[in-house]
Amino acid sequence: MYWNQKCETMSREEMRALQSARLMDCVKRVYENVPVYKKKFDAAGIQPGDIKSIDDITKLPFTDKYELAENYPYGFFAVPMRDIVRIQASSGTTGKQKVLGYTKHDLELWGEVMARTLTAGGATSEDIVHVSYGYGLFTGGLGAHTGAETIGATVVPVSTGNTKRQIQILHDFGCTAICCTPSYALYIAETLAKMGMGPDDISLKYGFFGAEPWTENMRQEIERSLGIRAYDIFGLTEMIGPGVAFECDAHGGLHVNEDHFIPEIIDPDTCEPLPDGTPGELVFSSVTKEGMPLLRYRTRDICTITHEPCACGRTLARMSKPAGRTDDMLIVRGVNVFPSQIEAVLLDIDETSPYYMIYVDRVGVLDTMDIEVELRDGYPFDQVRRLQELSKRIKSAVESSLGIAANIRLVPVGTIQRSEGKAKHVVDRRNLK
Amino acid sequence: MNYVNQISVFVENKTGSLAQVTELLAEAGVDLRAFSIADTSEFGILRMIVDRPEIAEEVLKTAKATVVKTPVLAVRLEDKPGAMNHVMKVLAANSISVEYAYAFVSRDREFAYVVLRVDEPGSVAEVLMENGLQVLGNEELEKLQ
Questions:
Q1: Which of residues 77-116 of B touch A (CB under 8 A)?
Q2: Contact between chains at B66 and A383 (C-beta distance less than 8 A)
Q3: Which residues of A fall within a CB distance of 8 Å from B11?
Q4: Across the interface, which of A382, A385, A412 has its CB nearest the CB of B11?
Q5: How many pairs of residues across A and B have Cβ atoms under 8 Å apart?
Q6: Residue A316: inside a domain, yes or no?
Q7: Which residues contact A272 (CB under 8 A, 6 or more apart)?
Q8: For the complex shown, is ipTM > 0.85?
Q9: Each residue of A128-154: pLDDT tens digit?
Q10: Main-chain phi, psi angles of A150, to 5 degrees
Q11: Looking at the domain covering B71-143, what would its CATH class be?
Q12: Does A178 lie in the same domain as A78?
């Protein structure tokens, strides 16, 4: 089932012609309206007129997350604020959020790409869609919401938390589709079983899961324990949120909505384009966005891409599940976490040293994060009460910066291993392979 | 000065942490007069009164332990019922709160000593002395048998 058969099944030539026209238009718009891009183009000696087809995309400069931070919050907006109707954001690398502005058209585009996503899994206007991604600045909740509305389904905007209540709603409201993180889907299944229920007690038929890495084993477990078909969703706030790429029943990778988000794979060191099938860094150009189009945005995700048509009939390029990252970003409970955010928090706390170590575990099906923090040398630690207050203060500062909770463990001076060169800050023990 | 230097060591709450500290002190020939542990599920603080706090501090710092020296009061009491009560009544009457306390006895068992951690140990020592109590200084502690 297609939502937009024309765009999802057009020939390679048609797609390239469409991408060429859209890229040229986008280049002109950002050059005229985004001073950062004008500066980058001028520095690279590129004029909008030099871009004559999709093949010229490699002439364009890249955009990276550091530039977003430098131009926080609105520096990459390409339209006046009066045309921006929505702001969404996600964690940034230096403690500054990555902020995205949407015009009315961009929200419609989001609905369109999420509609393709839901339709590929079989959802229609007959469905009741339970959205338990978080609502708010995080793109998950509102992204799934707008897609479900676009296909005319009934949206149940539950958001996160209170799993027993979620199950009650799934059961009583007769929800037929669910959107959440894959780990939360497993947690729902686990809680369902604990409540003495199983797949037959709910009406779910399919689920759309993303915002964090998951495996084929997890898919099988989710499908078995909830009695559904499970589909992967890929997206990132900098592009639009969920809906950049989606899965079909062939499960042969994720179809990129490449008429809107043009994908490239590059060698992360040389920045040279890589051929289909070779793993490299995923780069996107969001050419049809009005509010904040980005050119050649480096996602830091490592994957492969293929332009071969799929068994499902779609011709949209397919990306593999990201197999890692070129930076140290972690995804914990669906939230992007950069160790540097934790470092920024600790630098503001006088009683601690800048040495820390993050341990990420999966307890049952949920991620946990423990942060070991070293006391500052010479800190008068003699009172338990003050140490506990300190620990609490760090915990709440970390939580308000990251948006998720972490356990803080104060450790003696010198406990955390000092490294020469690049410091190791993360021990990820989730073992998702 | 009427206070003594307590040596505190911050350790992780795991097996062997205490032994590392006591081993170092044993090697340096430091005599422990009193010892107390405050712990939570994550960490522990060992607090010690020793005969030579400077040596203890140096040895531990050299071994990269997390150490602080804290002034505390060591109040001498006759080792008999009611002696501790007297100290506590004086403190309460003067609205002095105690962060923590522990006790030790001298070798001849003639006297007991209670170690008190209070804010502003200097003025608290004066209050105690005005009420007829003896508060040890570092030199007296070192000479203590």
A1: 99
A2: no
A3: 412
A4: A412
A5: 48
A6: yes
A7: A266
A8: no
A9: 999 999 999 999 999 999 999 999 999
A10: -60, -40
A11: alpha beta
A12: yes
